[in-house]
Amino acid sequence: MQKFILSPNAVSRSFRLVAVLWISIFNLVLFEAALGTDPISNQPTRFYDHSLLISSDYPCTWPTHPFPKFQIVPQNSIGPNGPYNIDTLYLDGNTGTQLDTPPHSVARPELKREKSGPFGLAYSDKIEPWQFGGEACVVDTRDLLDKAPFGVSPLVTPDYLEKFEKEYRPFRFGDVVLFRSDYSDKYYKAFPEGNRYINDVVDRKAPGYPDPNPETMEWLGKKGVLALGTDSASMGPMPDLAEPTHYAGLKYGMIWTEGATGLNALPATDAFYCFLGPKHEGGPYSNGRAFSIVGGDLPAKLIDACRNKRAIDLSPTLTPKFPLTHPGHRTGEHRQVYLKIDFLYSDYLDMWHHGHSMDSMAGTHLVPPSFALPAPGKRPQYSPEVRGWLSEYEKKFGPRGESDLTTEKVPIDWTCGNVRVIDVRRLSGTTDRGAWPLSPQITSQWIKDYESQNGELKPNDVVLFQTGVVDRYLALPADKNGDLGVGLWSDALSRKVEGWPALSPEAIFYLHSKGIRCVGTDAPDLGGVHPKDALMTYWALGSKEMVGVEFLCQLDKVPNGAYFLFAALKIQNCHGGPGRAIVLY
User: Fold this and answer.
1) Is pTM beyond 0.90 here?
2) In terms of DSSP bridges, do strands 518-521 and 547-550 run parallel, antiparallel, or are they unpaired?
3) Among 220, 254, 392, 581, which residue's beta carbon has the most beta carbons within 10 A?
4) What is the CATH number of domain 96-309?
């Protein structure tokens, strides 16, 4: 520590008194630290995003043949063909910041192969939600960066773990061990500079990224650690230790983040780290969002919840067998259906590597303001029908607003918070059948009635509306074709049943007045089945710079006092965002 010497001849008496006061405070802090006081908990709570930007301008996909390249295709821009910005995505699980699960290397038990085991069935949709989070233990491996021959990874050996334990504490169940080399921070850039991230390593034009060797994975596996992360491009050392390292850890049931970034923001311990990604059926890996929470009391509470397995998954599984996207009000208006696309067969695992073509709002997803609002300065030419709706909306509620807040710009702390579940199931059956397709409206009075019985909403609470709709269709038996939940959208759109409860603009304005930034629903969407009502709902959300999380499930299982966590894929210029929602309690 630098020493400051105060000269009586140069400093006034009052300044000396202030200096003495500060020194006393400093000594008190040191004394409290010696007694075990955690200085991190006395700091303000902050969220950090550790995810790479998914963009075709960046090295976001594994570059070797035949791995597919990421694509985002605008299906509609706000204008005469429709009032929403709609995107279709094509990506595989090895895109951006990503998660590996055991079936990436562990064969299914029934195959009875050398590397078969029970974790060969632990796909991304089967991992328990508590395993996605835990206490970040940051292992410093920066001394290895670029310290290897071209095309070869410098190895993180067990002595790095032993050094961490000597300096901090032993590793244990519930830790997320993060290997920090700052590789992604330094080399994940737009092309052509981005070639250095993976391409140049594969082509042996640059040193490989630092990674743990198999012995390090075994060391951690025997400690009971079930979650790891690296800010390298992969957890597999180049050129020939990728599979041995993967299997050494995955056979213990581990999962891990690849392609993290910004680990320099974390202390060595005490921070909460989490990875959340879309819940693909039979997925051996998944792209997703990595983030951490530092400071205050919140990290310790969330870490404790994960260590004690107190977590609930609120996202249904993404599968082509379930209707995950809007079928459209008229022919030709349907959103891109969710498709699984095989591209590379692994004989040993008897498994296809696969990607997905999907609407950006398939399954549990984010609704950013830019979904329904035009970008600043843009004056869309709406259809005559929508122009009439806009005139009606602005006469009643004021200007519609503008926004360029696409998914990657939405801060993660906007979609995380203390959860408040408002049960609106009693709204079902309250509309006139002759007016169908129509959704009953959730009004501000419903919310006020909830507050009168359960306490007022607080700023930054996440408010979720329980309709029971998605759960009801998930519980239906499969039809003769093996499809599940048939009619989730079409029953209401075809007037077979009443629409699901939907949020009214007035309710949104009331929630905004209470300091709420994020609302969610376990219905297919927040807007409901009537096109005009739905559009006004999304205009209201966007104009108040609020975000929505749609297509949740299991809200009936959320206990009081739970904490909601949701994160969408960090896709550049995306007007939706598939993701995953959980609660910890």
Assistant:
1) yes
2) parallel
3) 581
4) 3.50.30.50
